[in-house]
Fold this protein.
Amino acid sequence: MKTFGIAASALVLALAVGTPAMAATPQQEKMQACNADATGKGLKGDERKSFMSSCLSNKPAAAATAKTMTPQQERMKKCNADATGKTGDDRKAFMSACLKG
């Protein structure tokens, strides 16, 4: 009975830990960035479709567009700059509050 308990505990622990997250491929990262840009610009329908097509291709216009930051990225940059000097739990709490607000 004791070995069953140990085996069950090991199984629960293995399931709780899970498998490590797989890293996104460069194409997936590019898709996420283009999607965030299109969402940030409020594009819909054919306009969004056209934007996504040009963003995902390697056209120079898409590279210039990809450099603009989304509102969330801008907020993250500002909060990160404001958090300079804070460490540990203080920084974590500040960043959480800043990003929500």
Notes: The chain has two domains: 24-68, 69-101. The chain has a mean pLDDT of 78. Residues 69-101 form one domain. The chain has six helices and no strands.
